[in-house]
Here is the input.
Amino acid sequence: MKIDKRELILENIIRAYLKQNEPVGSSVLCEHIIEQGNANIPASTIRVYFKKLSDEGAITKLHISGGRIPTVLTMSYYWQEHLKFNEKIKVTNEELLSFLVYELGIYCMIFAKKNPKFSAIKRISDKFLFLEFEDEALNIKFNAKVEKFLQNLLGISLDELELASIQVGLSELRVKIKELKRSNIFYQENEKIIFEIFKDERIKNALEPSFERSFTNNLAFWIESAHMGLKTPILYKGENAVMICVGSVYNDYEKFLNTLKEAS
Here is the structure.
């Protein structure tokens, strides 16, 4: 079977860079390819492909005499191809999770996956409206127009009610729903990463469970700052939950997820 040298060299540049976090030279890459059990490609051939990949914008050189690193776009394509989310990870060791989060420089939030139906609304002495969501509840100040509006929304999910509150400007209800969702956060560490990435209102959103709406399927990319996020369903200490992780596109997310899988 013929080896696609371009793909082989590019993938090994990425893997070598993830492993050592240093620009990859032709000699180092040659050794790395052999270590991986792949074909023995001479350093001279690798240098030819370095030029081709650089011209394509797949890799870049940080210094005149230095090695190459994959570009941010290359890393985004790599993670879209390599990260799989078809297996629910069991997270039981919080100490290991925290070690990985800080070692790799990742923001991590885990929250209960709950989206209960809006099941009932009750008026309390013309002072409060009591909203029930299966096994959860919240209250807001009484307003006859708001009560009538909400009566028409009975049966929708908590997420849908949150969106409705944003669309019609029910700020008190929106705040109360956020508070309810925040009470379901199990784990949240290394928030400073969020402050490094975002410099606007997105900071607040990224610290809330509703941040998951920023993701297309399981991944989100912020190319301008070379950061990305992943979202995956997990079992956290036996409970169904969602884990969101955000960090540099150059973090080794395969190592992160595989280490958690192995520990479970």
Remarks:
- The radius of gyration is 24 Å.
- The chain has a mean pLDDT of 91.
- The first strand starts at residue 59 and ends at 61.
- Residues 5-70 form a domain with the Arc Repressor Mutant, subunit A fold (CATH 1.10.10.10).
